[in-house]
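> forwarded from #structure-qc
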């Protein structure tokens, strides 16, 4: 399999894992900050939509039919990490799915060595689609991992995808497992 297709396959997988973690939750559960820095599931979805579209469409100069929400990063550098009052979680999830289609077209249309330009990268602004694809895959995968932990904390939903948890429940169940691990941690003091 070609390198570009392999990278795209992993990006799709990370994106779908992130979207699954947002599936079936209330607007409040999706928006509620879950970390001391304000991370929310819908914030991760919105951020990844911006990341994918920004790096893999805009920075490559590929045309896009999409208009992403206006964000004033000068006023709020974290504005892409939460749903604004006038945005809905369903709308942001739909946007991310549309971004995915445009990203697919952009990446498919260009070679990995196609030039790209990232204005905020300073002296490293001139780059290639290949580097941008790896950068984006790393970013989306990282946030999908954050979403894994956040969702498990909300309702216990864990694993890779629905029907493929990729987790093997230990003998005695998860509660017994956590109790055993807590004992090991306490003994390490």
């Amino acid at each position: 399999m070609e390198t570009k297709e392999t990278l795209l396959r992993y990006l799709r997988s990370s994106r779908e894992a992130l979207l699954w973690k947002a599936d079936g939750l209330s607007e409040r559960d999706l928006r509620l900050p879950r970390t001391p820095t304000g991370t929310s599931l819908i914030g991760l979805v919105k951020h990844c939509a911006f990341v994918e579209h920004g790096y893999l469409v805009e920075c490559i100069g590929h045309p896009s039919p999409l208009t992403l929400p206006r964000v004033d990063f000068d006023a709020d550098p974290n504005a892409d990490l939460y749903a604004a009052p006038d945005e809905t979680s369903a709308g942001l999830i739909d946007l991310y799915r549309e971004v995915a289609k445009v990203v697919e077209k952009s990446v498919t249309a260009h070679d990995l060595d196609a030039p790209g330009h990232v204005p905020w990268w300073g002296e490293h602004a001139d780059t290639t689609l290949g580097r941008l694809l790896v950068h984006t895959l790393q970013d989306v995968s990282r946030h999908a991992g954050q979403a894994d932990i956040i969702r498990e904390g909300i309702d216990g939903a864990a694993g890779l995808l629905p029907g493929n948890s990729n987790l093997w429940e230990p003998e005695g169940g998860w509660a017994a497992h956590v109790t055993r691990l807590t004992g090991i941690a306490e003994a390490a003091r």
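QC bot note: The radius of gyration is 19 Å. DSSP finds six helices and two strands in the chain.
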